Amino acid sequence: MFRGLYITLCLLLSVTLCRAAEPREVLVGATDTAAYMPTLRHERVAILANHTAMYSEHEHIVDMMHREGINIVGIFAPEHGFRGSVEAGAKVENGVDSKTGIPILSLYNGNTQRPADDVMRSFDVLVVDMQDVGLRFYTYYISMLRMVDACADFGREVIVLDRPNPNGHYVDGPTLDMKYKSGVGWLPIPVVHGLTMGEIARMAIGEGWAKAAKLTVVKCRNYDHATHYTLPIAPSPNLPTQHSIYLYPSTCLFEGTVVGMGRGTEAPFEIYGHPDMKRRDFAFTPVPNAGSKNPPHNGKVCYGVDLRGVANEDIWREGVNLEYVIDAYRDLNMGESFFTPMFEKLIGVSYVRRMIMSGASAEEIEACWSADVEEFKVLRRKYLLYEE
Q1: 92 in Cβ contact with 153 (< 8 Å)
Q2: What pTM did the predictor assign?
């Protein structure tokens, strides 16, 4: 009898320990409705969101709020548009959401930096919900901070419904020299900053990089910065896979060179090449597609490298990896003409181009920004909402 009871207790304990060891599902800020819906019930609400702002697997945050009777007076759309179908850099036009009839106001139409005064007066609270990928040159956080500044000027509250950062487990790359500030680099932070949207909003206000709007961040649950979070929805047309998101900190630098990085193929940011590269073990031909109407080297056979076989763990270990750019630079042997002015806007400093041209290795160049990384990590800790 006692032996049977002992075995039963051991089995129950084993099941309990196994369940405790199972990782809990990460819940995005939008799911914590008790933390923000009561505030919105009697307010005029504007929403800065895109296709990634899903409240549940089948319902968008705008649709949920509309269903719940929240008075949504407008939707602000960032790069790629409200439904996420516009290619990178293309203008996003104003319109009307066909599902709810709510006006859509673009923040990426080529001239609008912030809404007109009458638009700002039309709402009381701005809700922000967008899936970022944690890079200085990914533009969603810039759209958010421009709106934070506008809300500060008009006394409007900002509520950020936070989402995990898929590259939130590390910090790497040089800190932006602000003489290269642009629409693809807004703050003096490293290429990979390791912050969620809520945390970067807190840092921008706390450091005086953005105006002091009233800010509330609705945190994710069951998340910390050691979590390798897999995005349920592609954040933009040319980051279709989790692997592309992990490679993006390194391969996006090709946007500042003559080399194609896979736009116009089925593997953007997972391959790179050029028609004149000497290596011939891999080739691809870019053609117009939904993510790129006029890809680099459109219709030409490009020779280069396929990175789709690189393990995620290797990408995480390498961080921002200059070996790819250096490889292509040396192969093409074009000197200064290999680069475009966009390169400095992306990497954020002037010394990287110079060192590549002088023959420095990736390790030598990356060592030059190690102090930037350590300094930023110290500053970053003041604004973290989740454990490292």
Answers
A1: no
A2: 0.90
Paired with 260 in beta bridges are 273
Question: Tokens for 63?
Answer: 């649709």
Overall size of the chain counted in residues: 388
Asked whether the beta carbons of 289 and 319 are under 8 A apart, the reply is no
> What is 29-218's CATH topology?
Rossmann fold (3.40.50)
**Amino acid, res. 227:** T
Q: How far apart are CA 51 and CA 184, in angstroms?
A: 21
Reply yes or no on whether the pLDDT at 1 is more than 60: no
For 337-388, the pLDDT digits (tens) are 999 999 999 999 999 999 999 999 999 999 999 999 999 999 999 999 999 9
How do 215-218 and 157-161 pair as beta strands? parallel
Residue range(s) in the chain whose domain bears CATH number 3.40.50.12170: 29-218
Classified as helix, coil or strand, 283 is strand
Are the CB atoms for 192 and 172 separated by under 8 Å? yes
Please provide the distance, in angstroms rounded to a whole number, between the alpha carbons at the two ends of the chain: 48
Tokens of 142: 């810039």
Sequential DSSP letters for 203-220:
HHHHTTSS----EEEE--
**Which among 44, 50, 356 is positioned nearest to 231, based on CA atoms?**
50
Residues with Cβ within 8 Å of 60's Cβ and at least 6 positions away in sequence, in order, are: 49, 51, 53, 54
For residue 81, the model assigns a pLDDT of 63
Lowest mean pLDDT of 92-106, 159-173, 314-328, name the range. 92-106
> Cα 327 vs. chain centroid, distance in angstroms?
26
The residue type of 319 is G
